[in-house]
Amino acid sequence: MGTPKQFFPHCSYLSSRGMVAISAEYRIKNKHGTTPFECVKDGKSAIRWVRIHSDELGIDSQRIAAGGASAGGQVAAATGTVKSFEESNENIKISSKPNALVLIYPVIDNGPGGYGYSRVRKRWKEFSPMHNINKNTPPTIVFLGTRDSYIPVPTAMKYKSLMENAGVRCDLHLYNGQPHGFCNHPSFKGSSTKYYDKVMTEMNRFLTSLKYLK
């Protein structure tokens, strides 16, 4: 499910801070009849497209951040971790890997016991972000509510540990008592200005520390 409109408010804010902000649409099952594998392919294609067109868009091709929430968070995380799922008709010499990741209650473990395993069973090892972390994984920030019914806190803590063991930065921000979807823009049902503002503040600090923002 989902719509790129979910991140229009985030893009508007980041644009006001000086970034070029893009909300990309990827194929989804209930609209296009596709599998999770096409989702990741589309995420990678989006990063590659931005890099190819960086000059005309006024973008630094070595400062491209990818972000998303929930399943979109999995897509973003996969662009920075997994090696497979590249479109065959694209120039794979141009990297589809972003330089930083902003993950909001992301699905990061697709292994046995993780979310979505039954849908990617035969290819989970190459699909799951948690199982493809290495020293080249981009610096990452993760936001998660402690009462998320899809992503357990221990999963996020393990992800952070694996990232740091690989020598890669991973900032984890936990929000006590908050469920899945807690920090959407207030225009979305079940969200609040309080937590949207908190997450955007930490996102701002993270991107500033990487010199993506002033």
Give a description of the structure.
The protein is an alpha/beta fold and 214 residues long. The protein contains 8 helices and 4 strands; from the N terminus they run ααααβαβαβαβα. The protein has helices at residues 8-16, 29-32, 36-52, 54-57, 71-79, 124-127, 153-165, 193-209; strands spanning 65-69, 100-104, 140-145, 170-175. The radius of gyration is 16 Å and the shape is globular. The relative contact order is 0.13.
Q: What's this, in brief?
A:
With about 210 residues, the protein is of the alpha/beta class. About 35% of the residues lie in helices and about 10% in strands. The chain has a four-stranded parallel sheet with strand order 1-2-3-4, sandwiched between helices.
Structural class: alpha/beta
Averaged pLDDT, please?
A: 95
- By CATH reckoning, the class would read Alpha Beta
Largest sheet, in brief, is:
4 strands, parallel
Cα end-to-end separation: 34 Å
Query: What is the string of SSEs from the N terminus onward?
Result: HHHHEHEHEHEH
Count of domains? 1
CATH topology: Rossmann fold
Major sheet: order of its strands? 1-2-3-4
Number of E-state strands: 4
